[in-house]
Specification:
The chain is α/β, with parallel strands linked by helices. It folds into 2 domains: 266 residues, Aldehyde Dehydrogenase, Chain A, domain 1 (3-Layer(aba) Sandwich); 188 residues, Aldehyde Dehydrogenase, Chain A, domain 2. Helices cover 38% and strands 21% of the residues. It contains 14 helices and 22 strands.
Length: 476
């Protein structure tokens, strides 16, 4: 069994230990027990990381596509070799099941290999000009990147934040979540072990607002990449705007699911229940607001609740577990508050609605229905294991409800009507849309939202190009 690693930061290739520094206690969410103490950066550490990233950019921007590809492919091989070790670290510190963390490692492997190929395809173009003149459009790496990753995908989020900048020729200062640092450190180490120059990738931790203000206040940083809540994203975007830094913002969602009465209800439930309770609902693209046509509403609601009551919850390290604990004590508190508010305002509690056990941060898979629009949970992202199921009559009313909120990250639809499928894909305001599936991610697939769910994309060729700046050169 993998033991939890000794925690540190990585600056200029050095493992920076606690020493005189303040620390953050990393806790196992399944037991509440302390896993380790994470050293937090002071101002001198952050200045050192910035200076190193500046040197690293000068080195890496001049690397060849083949060199960048070799590092990414090498890191992918190491992640595959270390899959079980990395997965177990992630489950210990974040709580999700081993099945999920193993898949998360494979997501990174696929993404790094994809970006290795994309390094060969940054083409630019030549414009048509009269004889004796030439105009070319070229792409260059944007510069040192400050990348902030949350705790809900402790392997995959750091992989996204590191893969694209490194493929583009940038250096990176990564600050992943203090709740789940061991996973991110393992990914950075794979890159360094694969031959990435030590100046190119740094991993720091600290008080989030202090770290973000320090890094974004430096002219060395030329791009911000952030995944997290809309509130924090807006704050960081304002800080980045002071120095006109490029930004990629992957923010919150409130995923609508439109279910029409021409579907196989049991087939839809088999897919959507698993999608809802993946990672205890702590997924930015989690299906959340189920907008169900009246003809199948009762069957859908009752079937969802029945499956939720039978969902196997426990320590993610154990075989057969379908859902682990929530990642930190704030999340069960939020579930109690939001579900309690909904029920007080008239919603029906069909399943769950309570904590499980007396240790760790477990919360029961929950279903609430007939929820009024003024309930907090109908307007704020719950980020937890709760499905909201409401009945609707007409297609246009279902679309209006899907578009009611200022979020637009992911949306889902279930219908066998081909014309309706096209209408929904056109009219639902979202960055990613699924028809009769929940599979919206992939190494070659741009990932991002609209409205308050952010701007810019990760993954796919778009993720790489988000770390490049365009230059037009005219020659007479």
């Amino acid at each position: 069994m993998t033991s939890y690693p000794t925690l540190h930061m990585i600056i200029d290739g050095e493992k920076v230990m606690q020493g005189h520094r303040a620390t953050h206690r990393v806790v196992n969410p399944a037991t509440g027990e302390t896993l380790g103490e994470l050293p937090l950066a002071d101002a001198a550490d952050l200045d050192r990381a910035l200076e190193t990233a500046q040197r690293g950019f000068r080195i890496w921007r001049n690397s060849t596509a083949q060199q960048r590809a070799a590092v990414l492919q090498g890191a992918a091989r190491l992640m595959l070799e270390r899959q079980e070790e990395i997965a177990r670290i992630a489950t210990m510190e974040q709580g999700k099941t081993l099945v999920e963390t193993r898949i998360e490692v494979l997501m990174n492997v696929g993404l790094f290999n994809f970006y290795a190929g994309e390094t060969q395809r940054v083409y630019g173009r030549q414009l048509v000009r009269p004889a004796g003149m030439r105009s070319t459009v070229t792409y260059e790496p944007v510069g040192p990147v400050a990348a902030f990753a949350p705790w809900n995908f402790p392997i995959g989020n750091p992989g996204r934040k590191l893969g694209a900048p490194i493929a583009a020729g940038c250096s990176v200062i990564l600050k992943s979540a203090e709740e789940s640092p061991g996973s991110a450190l393992a990914i950075v180490q794979c890159l360094l072990d694969a031959g990435l120059p030590k100046e190119v990738a740094q991993a720091v931790y600290g008080v989030p607002d202090q770290v973000s203000r320090h890094l974004l206040g430096s002219p060395i940083i030329r791009k911000l990449s952030f995944t997290g809540s809309t509130v924090v994203g807006k704050h960081l975007a304002k800080l980045a705007a002071d120095d006109m830094k490029r930004t990629t913002m992957e923010l919150g969602g409130h995923g609508p699911v439109l279910v029409f009465d021409d579907v196989d209800v049991d087939g839809v439930l088999d897919t959507m229940v698993a999608g809802k309770y993946r990672n205890a609902g702590q997924v930015c693209v989690s299906p959340t607001r189920f907008i169900v046509q009246e003809g199948v509403f009762e069957r859908f609601r009752d079937g969802f609740a029945e499956r939720a009551k039978g969902w196997k919850v426990g320590n993610g390290m154990e075989d057969g577990i379908q859902m682990g604990p929530m990642a930190n004590p704030r999340r069960p508190d939020a579930m109690e508050r939001m579900i309690g508010d909904a029920v007080a305002k008239g919603a029906k509690l069909n399943a769950g609605g309570e904590r499980i056990g007396n240790q760790g941060f477990f919360y029961a898979p929950s279903v609430i229905s007939e929820v009024p629009l003024d309930a907090e949970i109908m307007n704020e992202e719950p980020f937890g294991p709760v499905a909201i199921i409401n009945p609707f009559g007409k297609e246009e009313d279902m679309i209006a409800e899907a578009n009611r909120l200022p979020y637009g990250l992911a949306a889902y639809s279930w219908t066998n009507d081909a014309r309706r499928q096209k209408r929904l894909a056109r009219e639902v305001e979202t960055g990613m849309f699924c028809v009769n599936t929940t599979m919206l991610g992939g190494a070659d697939t741009p990932f991002g939202g609209v409205k308050w769910s952010g701007h810019g994309h990760e993954d796919g060729p778009e993720g790489l190009m988000a770390c490049m700046v365009l230059k037009t050169v005219h020659e007479g």
